[in-house]
Design brief:
- Helices cover 5% and strands 36% of the residues.
- By secondary structure, the protein is mostly beta strands.
- The strands form two sheets. A seven-stranded mixed β-sheet has the order 6-7-8-9-4-3-10. Strands 1-2-5 form a three-stranded antiparallel β-sheet, with no helix packed on it.
- Strand 7 and strand 8 form a beta hairpin.
- The longest helix has 7 residues.
- The two termini are 26 Å apart.
Length: 133
């Protein structure tokens, strides 16, 4: 599979090739902050198949967390592109940054321990209070 995408203003562009490792929605509080309150929907793609084709992202890692993710976003418009989790062999691409977000099919809901009453989990997908075993 080859995915292409970028930020809202067009300053950042990327390509991601390979087999998706996970397609999910995350309800954790950190993702709620990044998404503006909704669960974060993402496709995890192998790191070796990912590259920026235009521009360079700005990144942020919280220094007060034990194993924080690094979030990459456009320095111009602020669009969130991806997250990198320590030890995880994939980039966590934000579905909203894809040129064709219709390729996303949620396979699970994670960190539902933080799920808000207004969040929707599609019927029939596995849900986990934290990460699956």
């Amino acid at each position: 599979m080859k995915l292409e995408g970028g930020c809202y203003c067009g300053a950042l562009r990327y390509e991601a090739e390979g087999e998706p490792m996970m397609q999910a929605q995350c309800h954790c509080r950190e993702c709620q902050h990044i998404s503006g309150g909704s669960p974060n929907v993402f496709i995890a793609m192998p790191i070796p198949g990912f590259r920026y084709t235009k521009g360079a992202p700005k990144s942020f890692t919280r220094p007060d967390l034990e194993r924080p993710v690094t979030r990459e976003f456009c320095a111009e418009c602020g669009s969130h592109i991806l997250a990198r989790s320590p030890g995880f062999p994939a980039v966590i691409l934000k579905v909203g940054s894809l040129d064709d977000p219709s390729v996303f099919t949620p396979g699970m809901a994670i960190f539902t321990v933080d799920q808000q009453a207004f969040h929707h989990v599609p019927a029939g997908i596995p849900s986990f209070e934290r990460l699956p075993g």
